[in-house]
Amino acid sequence: MNERAVNLLTGAGASFGVVGGDGHELNGGPDLARELNARFNLENEEPDCSDLQLVYGDIAATPQNRTPLAELLRARFTHCKPTWQSILVEFPWKRIWTLNIDDVLQRVVADSGGLGVKIFTWDDALSVRPLAANESQIVHLHGRASLIQGDAGRLIFSLKQYAARQEVSPGWHAEFRSEFVRKPFIVCGARLRDEFDLATVLEIGNKSRERGGCPSFIVLKGFAPGEEARFRRQGLVPVAATGDVFFAALRSDYQAYLAAQPSQTPQARASAALVRAAFKQLTLVAPRPRRLLDFYASAECQWHHVVDELDGRLEYVEKAAIWLQDPGRDQRVVLISGGPVCGKSTSALRIAATLNAAGRETWLFRAEERFDEEAVCEYLASKPQAVLVFDDCADFSNSLTSLIGAAAKRQLQLRVIATAEAWRVRGVHADLLAALVLPVDLEPVPRRHFDSIFALRRQRGRLGRCTGMKSLDGWLDFKDHYSRRMLEWLESLEGARSYRQVISQILESVAGNAADRRLLLTCAATHRFGYSLPFQFASALNGKMSLEEFVEPPSPYAELTFLDEKGLRLRSRSFAIHVWSLASPKERFDISLYLAKQLSALVVPQSITRRTYPYRILRELMDCDVVARDLPESADRWYGELLPLMSWNSRYWEQRALLAARRNQDETAYSFAKKAVSIHPRDAFPHTTLGTICMQISVRRADDVGIERFWEGAWELDTSRRLALEKGNEWEHPYVTFFTYAVRAYRLYPSQAARIADAWDEWMRAADSSALFRFDRQGQAQLKEFKRQWLGLAVRDR
């Protein structure tokens, strides 16, 4: 509760007894149905006359009834007079969801000052809750009576309206489904049996206890026979109590908890709550997961693998831990890089465990969305010994730039452990230049590190076919037969079929379950990028059993899959890449499109700014290189299917432009790139894409249009560079693109030579003064090579 992680869902019972605006009490659905049945002279009898969905539908089916029905509902369910409900807004909810159309919650919010509360209805645009802790959201999943105009068209009351509102529709219903399957909820006054628009997710149930450790509850005055068992099956702990009694008791307990905490200012308390929400504290006595993966079978590293000392003690880890313990008020980052299954995560967690044992707090970034840099700094002001761990940090390196700047401004000690894939590490390092950075490259594996790993596996009896070998012989085997590829060597050790063979046989088996195959391939489709398949999608695809049963013995997939905080994963990212390679072209098209459409329901412009988990998966799925590689014959059709859902998104148009450009479809590429810029004119990336495409067109055409495109491209690249500088996240792509194509254009367009030379000088001065090309040898060599090429042109002209 104190971490703002708990959702509240209210139903009719939470408003029971409240007096409505027309002076009548708000009763349950059956009472309202009988009243409406009588008022509109329907001839329904029991049980039909007590069925609100049926009665409402009968009334609304007659056009002349719609206005008086709307007037009745508006009069009854607006200007309500709350009784005990004011207590509901006293808790720091993650979000309040309601199935009611009344304005009870709005009234209590207004009475309490209404500060920081926003009200939404089901058809409003999805809004990501701001990072600031002082805003709450109330979402009406079935509409609001206060918005009724001439009819009740925005309400969801009748069977027809329930059926029309698909669960997979974009917006708030999709967000609710995403939250309910994994986050803690308190359900008050809702029996959850007539919500047909939410039927699937309610049947899947709430798994907050299994997936996060916090249980969910349902509070009702009483339970009919069989109801308690049904709610327990759905993951909800039944509590027989009235709402006022339950929440008064919860308030008492919550206030006692707060009183027992160390004295803090409100600002410090708020920042600590935000840190706990965005980071998971790593402790040596943390609760163990239900099932620990076999670390020595090439599985992804888990915290308890390190706690249990299953990893090798490597020299660079010890040095990095010592380096981070420097007492100075500076900002330090250990940046660990390498390819798949080389020990990046293990090394980061080992450093964290070493620092934890030395008395420092260690926090692992959950990577669900962007963190609040100012809140983290506020926390570090009171906890300077805290260490932050960012595994696979590239998606959030810009946030790290802001955090480093904020910490430096306040002269705070900042200690960070970060990992990045080898192909992304240079861009990450460029974002960290304001801090002291200790780079740790894990590849190629040096002999001394191999010896440590070899010795540990020998001690644990896990050398398999290399049992009895000397370390030197093992090294030669690793180097000569496996080209120092750690994954392949580890999989070869214990003589059994590799996991790749196992999954191949499962997926290719004629007797294999089609649903299981689709689930595994869909999981691979996200995990190949490093992302779990989110719970709501995995649960919907699984269907026949809980995901917990799917990943545990005696399931045939127990050794191939596992669950983390975000969803379903395969053994490792490299394993997921292999599994995806086994999909047929049709499966790749259908599965990637299914995911893209489902995720699009959870992505709005705020999601992009916040780098939410659904957005980051969707971004990878839409990537031009990914789509062209996966779907060489149907990439255009794939993008076309997404057009109705993603036409508002500039990245969608950028990727379509790049795909058209690689096919030499110049006019199409140019138009798509211009569309991307028109959507986000203040974003550097669309300008870079348009600039790149203009440059490509210029060297392909070699005519007057080519000249025009060259200078348009130069202007777009310069715009991108300047926008990035304004936002403090300069990147090298505009420079590299300009230099690459300027050399070629200089040869193609003699009439433009002097003007291109002037532009070159201006760009080179900017590059020489930029840290992007100075901080490492690769950048220095890159700039030196461009200068060499340009000098060659000058010599040739003489």
Describe the structure.
By secondary structure, the protein is of the alpha/beta class. 52% of the residues lie in helices and 9% in strands. The protein has 37 helices and 16 strands. The strands form 3 sheets. Strands 3-4-2-1-5-6-7 form a 7-stranded parallel β-sheet, sandwiched between helices. Strand 6 (216-220), helix 9 (227-233) and strand 7 (236-240) form a beta-alpha-beta unit. Helix 11 (266-278) packs across helix 15 and helix 32 runs antiparallel to helix 33 (684-701). The mean pLDDT is 90.
In total, the number of strands is: 16
Largest sheet, order of strands side by side? 3-4-2-1-5-6-7
Tell me the strand percentage band.
5-15%
Measure the end-to-end span.
Answer: 75 Å
Detail the poorly predicted runs.
Answer: none
Rg to the nearest angstrom?
30 Å
Query: From the helix content, strand content and strand pairing, which structural class follows?
Result: alpha/beta
Helical segment tally? 37
> What's the pLDDT, averaged over the residues?
90
Envelope shape: globular
Helical fraction equals 40-55%
**Largest beta-sheet characterization:** 7 strands, parallel
